[in-house]
Task: inverse folding
């Protein structure tokens, strides 16, 4: 059986960790089989989405359009350049390059990336910004 994680999009909150105040991520993938631990494999994807998708109608719609173009075969690869990340989208995989030394890699499937973007766009479109949780494939 393939493990399933939980993707959560929600408002950031301020928490204390080791006597420091830290904002929680607005989008993250959790493994509740491991006491809700963040799944490291998806951290670059979530960081790129959080930094470079600010609105449902603007940058969110734009990224979804690039995904559609790749999925339909209209283009083979989309190098989507945002404020802090380049998201490289192909039919097989998506990977991320931080423009300010945040990291590179974080390869995920296009289906995983599309689900994460669609979920985050849905969260941004909600005027009340209610948390959204969806099952997320490993």
Result:
């Amino acid at each position: 059986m393939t493990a399933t994680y939980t993707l959560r999009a929600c408002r950031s909150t301020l928490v204390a960790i080791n006597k420091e105040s830290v904002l929680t991520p607005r989008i993250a993938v959790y493994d509740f089989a491991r006491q809700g631990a963040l799944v490291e494999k998806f951290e670059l994807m979530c960081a790129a989405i959080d930094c470079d998708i600010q609105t449902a109608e603007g940058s969110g719609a734009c990224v979804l359009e690039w995904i559609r173009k790749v999925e339909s075969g209209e283009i083979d690869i989309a190098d989507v350049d945002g404020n802090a990340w380049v998201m490289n989208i192909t039919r097989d995989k998506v990977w991320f390059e931080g423009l300010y030394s945040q990291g590179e890699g974080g390869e995920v499937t296009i289906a995983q990336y599309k689900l994460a973007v669609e979920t985050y766009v849905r969260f941004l479109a909600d005027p009340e910004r209610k948390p959204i949780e969806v099952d997320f494939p490993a």
